[in-house]
């Protein structure tokens, strides 16, 4: 059984090559999803966005290509390739593509009691 899907196993991969920017779209590719963690690749075309929302888990982004703008609880962050940001659970956050960019999103959810 594979826990990571939509990717070849036992092969060296460039994550940025696993998702493609498409004009006027936000493209996502889910790699893992369960009650404890979500791992998703995203590709944003320039000017695309995900409006403000929150999550029950901590969300960590890692920029693969391009530049992304993230607003967390009213504070703006601009991230470039190789940079990461953790957006704490229950804090509103939004994403905007200052230019086309790709990112890896990992969300870790609280354990059920």
Overview of this protein structure:
It holds the Pfam family Cupin_2. Keywords: Oxidoreductase. This is 5-nitrosalicylic acid 1,2-dioxygenase. The chain is mainly β and 113 residues long. The chain has one domain (15-108): Sandwich (Jelly Rolls), CATH 2.60.120.10. The protein has strands at 26-33, 37-44, 49-53, 58-65, 68-72, 75-79, 84-87, 93-97, 101-108. The strands form 2 sheets. It has a 5-stranded antiparallel sheet, with no helix packed on it. The protein is globular, with a radius of gyration of 14 Å. The protein starts with 25 loop residues before the first strand and ends in a 5-residue tail after the last strand. 20% of the residues are buried.
Layout of strands and helices, then pairs:
Blueprint (H helix, E strand, L loop, with lengths): L25 E8 L3 E8 L4 E5 L4 E8 L2 E5 L2 E5 L4 E4 L5 E5 L3 E8 L5
Antiparallel strand pairs: 1-2, 2-9, 3-8, 4-7, 4-9, 5-6, 5-8
Protein name: 5-nitrosalicylic acid 1,2-dioxygenase
EC number: 1.13.11.64
Enzyme class: oxidoreductase
List keywords for this structure.
mainly beta, 50% strand, 9 strands, 5-stranded antiparallel β-sheet, 4-stranded antiparallel β-sheet, Jelly Rolls, globular, 113 residues
**What is the strand arrangement across the widest sheet?**
1-2-9-4-7
Q: Which structural class should the secondary elements be placed in?
A: mainly beta
How many DSSP H or I helices? 0
Residues in β-strands, percent: over 45%
Whole-number count of domains: 1
Q: Estimate percent helicity.
A: under 10%
Mean pLDDT: 95
Fill in the CATH topology: Jelly Rolls
